[in-house]
Write a structure and sequence with these properties.
The chain is an alpha+beta fold and 517 residues long. The protein is 42% helix and 10% strand. The chain contains 13 helices and 18 strands. Strands 1-2-3-4 form a 4-stranded antiparallel beta sheet. Strands 9-12-13 form a 3-stranded antiparallel beta sheet. Strands 14-15-16 form a 3-stranded antiparallel beta sheet. β12 and β13 form a beta hairpin. α2 runs antiparallel to α13, α4 packs across α5 and α9 crosses α11. It is globular, with a radius of gyration of 24 Å.
């Protein structure tokens, strides 16, 4: 086992000076250990131990790239009781056992509110053309908006509704934004000739009745999610109609009756697009997500599960309840696999197609499974709990940066270190949400999730939030350097991941508090 400790030197006159100890351990603690001492790095208060152990900030299975290597040699000897003494006294720049969250909730609330109020609402509300402005520069200035994307418009609508429910003081204002979003989805984004909703429209040119247009299950999922959420809060019939129409179009045309789940790339009339169909729009072999047509994906199906989790609460039709349960079992039992990864791409009969592991989707799916399980009265189901925990543990074991904090973007599932070390904004926020969820459930037996949660928030606070213009940046390097000049909003970057995570975490912190063993 290997662990790494950043500590304060124990000394009467020099207690503030820092040193770093990196240790290799062989089979037992009853032998002396070699170590090297080096200056501690800023913000690298790390402890690496066994999986789920009480001092774990990072993985013992794989060192994060860039972490110094401990080695045996003719160095000074340190017996293990000295390390035990240091740890027991708490002379490391870490967190108390179980996690002290008392100062985090005000910070998280402040970031949530300042971001939404300064950058999104009403700044992004398009009063002239409807919907929301979706292209904003790094300083949040509005850019040209020639198109409107169903995913972005639905996500902005969902966030407005969710925040209205979260913040009673802002309820009426944000319900206005949510209703503004529903009006645009129901109006401009609805295909009144063939049913369903367009993936994307030109702001200044309506799509002709005879014009081909590729729709996608992913986009329809977000229409369902947003509209069902708005209805749950407002009981506006137009929101219920929008949610049901999106579901009915998808289910009547794209449900796979033989294998379960949904075909994803669809003709304008809802007909599933076959693999590599030459005439399919656009004239490339890939669909709206960049995936070869004719396959099923993890990404679409976890978001369909997310959408039907809400729809099933407001629409008690048997078909909705059946599809919800079906999607839950597909995500849990076919897409999620040991040792805690997700199959990204699958054939129509759910055979996995080799692909990388997306650590952000791992932690996001863990939360979505737990959320769905509660709606299905399976909150204490041991299999679901195990799968969700395995997904988070796997991301910590294989995709967590034990030196700087944060989750990497992607890597191999088990056989090699992560190969894309960038930190993407949505992954960091979904990770924050999932880590606190795991701490709430398992904080009585391990500090792993509490420690990682606090380190994750520290990375977000220090690096993911733009120090000049505010709001979440799109991505950083492994050590937190921002890619200058990147847009703050576009068709794929809205406020939904960050806002949902911060709202969930804020609510959970009220009940979690300072969990102690």
């Amino acid at each position: 086992m290997r662990f790494r400790l950043i500590a304060n030197r124990i000394g009467l006159r020099d207690r503030a000076s820092n040193f770093e100890v990196a240790i290799d351990r062989s089979s037992s603690f009853d032998r002396s250990l070699d170590f090297e001492v080096a200056p501690a790095r800023p913000r690298s208060h790390i402890i690496e131990t066994d999986k789920r152990s009480s001092l774990n900030f990072a993985s013992a299975r794989r060192r994060s790239p860039g972490v110094g290597r401990a080695f045996w040699g003719s160095r000074s000897r340190l017996v293990v009781w000295t390390i035990s003494f240091v740890v027991a006294l708490g002379f490391f720049d870490g967190t108390t056992r179980g996690g002290d969250f008392s100062k985090l909730k005000p910070k998280i609330d402040a970031e949530l509110r300042s971001d939404l109020k300064a950058h999104w609402y009403p700044h992004a509300v398009d009063r002239e053309r409807g919907g929301f402005h979706q292209n904003m520069a790094d300083d949040w200035s509005l850019l040209d908006d020639p198109k409107a994307s169903i995913v972005y418009q639905a996500r902005m609508t969902w966030t407005a509704a969710a925040f209205a429910a979260f913040s009673p003081a802002d309820r009426q204002e944000y319900l206005g934004y949510a209703r503004h979003g529903i009006a645009f989805l129901d109006g401009a984004m609805r295909d009144r000739d063939h049913g369903g909703f367009f993936w994307e429209i030109d702001r200044d040119r309506p799509i002709a009745a005879a014009e081909r247009h590729e729709k996608h299950a992913y986009g329809l999922a977000f229409v369902i999610y947003a509209a069902a959420t708005v209805y749950e809060i407002t009981h506006d019939e137009i929101a219920l109609k929008t949610a049901r129409d999106a579901f009915d179009f998808l289910d009547s045309h794209a449900h796979d009756t033989a294998n379960g789940g949904y075909f994803e790339a669809l003709e304008r009339d809802g007909s599933p697009l076959a693999r590599l169909e030459p005439a399919a729009p656009p004239s490339t072999p890939v669909d709206r997500l960049g995936i070869p047509r004719g396959y099923k994906t993890m990404n679409s199906h976890i978001h369909l599960l997310e959408a039907l989790t809400v729809l099933a609460r407001i629409d008690k039709r048997e078909v909705v309840q059946n599809r919800f349960h079906e999607l839950f079992l597909i995500v849990r039992d076919k897409i999620a696999v040991e040792p805690g990864a997700l199959n990204l791409y699958l054939t129509v009969d759910w055979r996995a197609v080799p692909g990388h592991d997306s650590f952000g989707h791992d932690v996001e799916a863990a939360y979505l499974l737990e959320e769905a399980a509660r709606e299905l009265n399976l909150a204490d189901d041991p299999k679901t709990r195990r799968v969700a925990r395995d997904l988070v543990d796997h991301a910590l074991d294989h995709g967590w940066d034990g030196e700087f904090g944060g989750f990497y973007d992607k890597g191999e599932a088990i056989a090699a270190p992560p190969f894309d070390l960038e930190k993407i904004w949505w992954t960091q926020y979904e990770g924050l949400n999932a880590l606190l969820l795991m701490h709430k459930q398992y904080g009585g037996e391990t500090d792993r999730y509490a420690n990682a949660f606090q380190m994750q928030w520290k990375f977000i606070e220090d690096y993911m939030i733009d120090p000049k213009h505010g709001g979440a940046v799109r991505r950083t390097t492994r050590d937190g350097k921002i890619h200058a000049g990147e847009t703050k909003a576009d068709a794929w970057k809205a406020n939904y991941h960050a806002s949902r995570a911060l709202m969930n975490v804020s609510k959970e912190l009220e009940s979690v508090g300072n969990t102690k063993k």
